[in-house]
Design brief:
Helices cover 64% and strands 0% of the residues. The chain has 10 helices and no strands. The chain binds a DNA duplex through helix 7.
Length: 326
DNA sequence: GATCATGATTCCGA
DNA sequence: TCGGAATCATGATC
């Protein structure tokens, strides 16, 4: 029954018209539905049609053989009935045996056809074989998210869905991408530095605006806010202190508020820009402009299992930022 | 065709 | 179940 269903689903058995179209549609869906696969899909359909033809030919042959053999046995029994009495029940039993034998052969045929289809599918539709690079836009969106959430590059389910929608890929592809990105970034931070610079610079203006707005907002709400001497402008030469100020802003004045949450992610980017402007030297960086400050001593991401808004990304063991104000 | 980049899969541990 | 790590398989570039 399962074999029948599968063959039906694959378009091997069932009505001839449109045979394999469902499978071809599945193929299109599996490979992202891009039109550049149409040649391969037609190839797939051709092979499927070939399997279908062989299956039907063999099936017909078996049915014919079954009928012929049944007739032959019936004739033999008829001849034997001249010498000994043969009951209709015996004839029925013999026919039953023959049909069972042939149906088991048919089952084998179905099984091997299924196998052939599975092999065909794996060969043509295996995602690994059909790997396609994401579009430039998709990669940019993913990278922007990654580098702007560097302190905690673990998007929530909602964020993954949002990214998937934006990039026209699946949620699992987003998960794969972040999995690969995290591990490759961690393995070779130096290699990704340039990329990080690019995306950090891209979002720097936004970050600056967000932080400036936050600072202004903070000043409006509490005029006696400490560490707010620069009035919203960035004091790059002393960026270590400035970052502490931002930490203070984020942690003290805006903790728990929506603004604070937004600023937090922007801060990651901004910190990077600060590093790039030469105002921040990293003792652990080994000459690296973009220091792996978000990785803890064990090589894991800081706060990997806790929301980034709860703990400061630069706090904790191994942080070289924590006491620069002294 | 060698090499690198990258998306997907698998295995394993927490 | 999720994420890290290793690996595979394919695409892109030279």
């Amino acid at each position: 029954m399962r074999l029948d269903n599968m063959l039906l689903a694959e378009g091997v058995s069932g009505p001839e018209k449109g045979g394999g179209s469902a499978a071809a549609a599945a193929a299109a869906a599996a490979s992202g539905g891009s039109s550049d696969n149409s040649i391969e899909h037609s190839d797939y359909r051709a092979k499927l049609t070939q399997i279908r033809q062989i299956y039907h030919t063999e099936l017909e042959k078996y049915e014919q053989a079954c009928n012929e053999f049944t007739t032959h046995v019936m004739n033999l029994l008829r001849e034997q009935s001249r010498t000994r009495p043969i009951s209709p029940k015996e004839i029925e039993r013999m026919v039953g045996i023959i049909h069972r034998k042939f149906s088991s052969i048919q089952m084998q045929l179905k099984q091997s056809t299924c196998e052939a289809v599975m092999i065909l599918r794996s060969r043509f539709l295996d995602a690994r074989r059909k790997r396609r690079n994401f579009s430039k836009q998709a990669t940019e969106i993913l990278n922007e998210y990654f580098y702007s959430h560097l302190s905690n590059p673990y998007p929530s389910e909602e964020a993954k869905e949002e990214l998937a929608k934006k990039c026209s890929i699946t949620v699992s592809q987003v998960s794969n991408w972040f999995g690969n990105k995290r591990i490759r970034y961690k393995k070779n931070i130096g290699k990704f530095q340039e990329e990080a610079n690019l995306y950090a610079a891209k979002t720097a203006v936004t970050a600056a605006h967000a932080v400036a707005a936050a600072v202004q907002n903070n000043q409006t709400n509490s005029p006696t806010t400490p560490n707010s001497g620069s009035s919203g402008s960035f004091n790059l030469p002393n960026s270590g202190d400035m970052f502490m100020n931002m930490q203070s802003l984020n942690g003290d004045s805006y903790q728990g508020s929506q603004v604070g949450a937004n600023v937090q992610s922007q801060v990651d980017t901004l910190r990077h820009v600060i590093n790039q402007t030469g105002g921040y030297s990293d003792a652990l960086g080994g000459g690296s402009l973009y220091s792996p400050h978000n990785l803890n001593a064990n090589g894991g991401w800081q706060d990997a299992t806790t929301p980034s808004s709860v703990t400061s990304p630069t706090e904790g063991p191994g942080s070289v930022h924590s006491d620069t104000s002294n």
